Amino acid sequence: MVPIYATVSFLSYAFYWHAIYFEVVRDCYEAFAIASFFALLCHYIAPDLHSQKDYFRRIKPRPWVWPLNWLAKCCGNLWRIPRSGLTWFNIIYFGVFQYCFVRVFMTVVAVITEAAGRYCLASLHPAFAHIW
After folding, report:
1. What is the pLDDT of residue 17?
2. Within 13 A of 104's CA, how many CA atoms are on the CB side?
3. CA 99, 119, 13 angle in degrees (round to 5)?
4. What digits encode the pLDDT tens for the residues 39-86?
5. What's the confidence (pLDDT) of residue 96?
6. What is the DSSP letter of 64?
7. Distance separating alpha carbons of residues 89 and 114, to the nearest angstrom
8. How far is CA 48 from CA 12, 35, 84, 98, in A?
9. Which of 37-41, 98-102, 107-111 has the lowest mean pLDDT?
10. In the structure, what pLDDT confidence band is assigned to residue 109 with cuts at 50, 70 and 90?
11. Percent of the chain at pLDDT above 70?
12. What burial letters (b/e) apply to 106-126, b meaning 16+ CB within 10 Å?
């Protein structure tokens, strides 16, 4: 990851007016790096998805870490501890791979709107397409 970030930083300084293209592609790469790391960790637990689900079926979930346990007190059943390890695994699995899809989609939106002149990184005005 370090060579990618270094290359993106260098290209962003060298080609300042096109820096937004490099930065959103870097963010897209980051999403795939997170998903690959998660898949590697899951592969260390068990080699295939069926074995991973069998493994997580047998474990008992622990309470959420701070600040999610605080949200559980404020929001009631919305942030409760999952009943089984498989439920916890499915929540985390969905969240990691959902982030990949959303990040790639937002990268495409950012590149298209920057090319059209409707993307502004510094403004939250509704006339521009900067979402987050």
Report:
1. 85
2. 11
3. 85
4. 999 999 999 988 998 999 998 887 777 777 777 677 766 666 778 888
5. 93
6. P
7. 37
8. 40, 16, 20, 20
9. 107-111
10. confident
11. 92
12. bbeebbebbeeeebeeeeeee
Only one residue has tokens 């959420």, namely: 64
Neighbours of 92 (CB within 10 A): 14
- The residue length of the chain stands at 132
DSSP secondary structure, 65-86, as one string:
PTTHHHHHHHHGGGGPPPSSHH
Cα 5–chain centre separation: 17
Instruction: Kindly tell me the burial class for residue 42, based on how many C-beta atoms sit within 10 Å of its own C-beta (0-12, 13-18, 19 or more).
Output: buried
3-state secondary structure 96-132: HHHHHHHHHHHHHHHHHHHHHCCCCCCCCCCCCCCCC
Q: Are 82 and 91 in contact (CB under 8 A)?
A: yes
What is the Cα Rg of the chain in Å?
A: 19
